[in-house]
Design brief:
330 residues; alpha/beta; Rossmann fold; 8-stranded mixed β-sheet; 3-stranded antiparallel β-sheet; 20% strand; globular
Length: 330
């Protein structure tokens, strides 16, 4: 008889790790929230003004992307937004409903092509695996800009001189890492026009005041935050690792694109996010701040709250508008 598995670690509702290395990501939280993590199949026809495609972008690996294409005249060139999903480096996929619901809306309102990478997940693939996947996607876009790769509808409609990075939560951490990596490379004719970390998981080993005092939310509890990072960071690392703690890094000589840092007033990690903002300003980097008032981490992904709570709905509208304005202005 095979030995029975025992639980080695667990993040309530989201993930269970067993002693033999098996990882179960079956949703076990309140059933009314499950639909937000259900995959949405791609549809090549336009639904509410947006078509979606899934593409394998590297023949030597399983790296793939979800693409959102807004319905516009053939002659219109569209900015390209490269998206990195959140999930504490351990859960979620680019085709989850919560991202579909948000990024079809952004594609419409910003008038942009959105490309979302299916990132490898920890603990099976610890960091920097997800960062490598994200950067590989950027290099794939560079190949298209150089006509070394082609997707006819993307090559013809995308403006490779206006490529933006965007990421939710831990995806915001990846935005900054990819921007740093790109700063030392010649990506011509592709140009990074901006970087948009949304509620990035920046923090230190020592808890900040906001971690101790701000309310927990369905999208972020302290237990979830710390356990995901323990499973996601390289073995032996602490939360002071540069991917989670970029504050104070030597960035003066890096040619970073303009940033739009999006924070939420009631986010557990707002203090360390604001520390990052101040360090960027000290280093002379172009960084704008978009604050969502009276609301918590990744609120705009919560379809239920958007539908029933006017405050969440209005702050989501302002966030999408602010991001769209940043893209139009760059």
């Amino acid at each position: 008889m095979a030995p029975e598995r025992t639980i080695a670690d667990q993040v309530s509702g989201w993930l269970t790790v067993y002693d033999d290395g098996f990882v179960d990501r079956t949703w076990t939280g309140p059933p009314q929230f499950k639909f937000m993590s259900d995959p949405v199949p791609p549809h090549h026809n336009f639904i509410n003004g947006v078509a979606t495609h899934d593409l394998f972008i590297n023949p030597d690996s399983d790296l793939r992307v979800r693409v959102y294409l807004p319905e516009v005249p053939d002659s219109v060139q569209l900015p390209i937004i490269l998206h990195f999903h959140g999930g504490g480096f351990c859960i979620s996929q680019a085709d989850w409903f919560m991202y579909y619901n948000t990024y079809t809306r952004l594609a419409r309102e910003a008038g942009a092509i959105i490309i979302s990478t299916y990132l490898r997940l920890a603990p099976e693939h610890r960091l920097p695996a997800a960062v490598d996947d994200a950067y590989s996607t950027l290099l794939w876009l560079q190949d298209m800009a150089n006509n070394r790769a082609e997707q006819p509808w993307l090559s013809s409609k995308g403006d490779f001189n206006r490529v933006f990075l965007i990421g939710d939560s831990s995806g915001g951490n990846i935005v900054h890492q990819v921007a740093k990596m790109a700063a030392g490379e010649n990506l011509h004719p592709l140009r990074l026009a901006g970087a948009i970390p949304i509620h990035p998981g920046f923090l230190r080993s020592v808890k900040s005041k906001s971690e101790l005092e701000k309310p927990e939310s369905p999208f972020l509890t302290l237990d979830m935050l710390y356990k995901f990072l323990k499973l996601g960071l390289p073995e032996g690392s602490t939360r002071d690792h540069p991917i989670t703690c970029p504050m104070g890094e030597a960035i003066h000589g890096l040619e970073l694109p303009p940033y739009l840092l999006c924070v939420a007033e009631e986010d557990l990690v707002i203090d360390t996010e604001m520390e990052f903002y101040e360090e960027m300003k000290k280093a002379g980097k172009k960084v704008e701040l978009l604050v969502s008032n009276g609301i918590g981490h990744s609120f705009y992904l919560n379809k239920i709250a958007i539908d029933v709570d006017p405050k969440t709905s209005e702050e989501t509208r302002k966030l999408i508008q602010g991001i769209s304005d940043f893209i139009r202005n760059h």
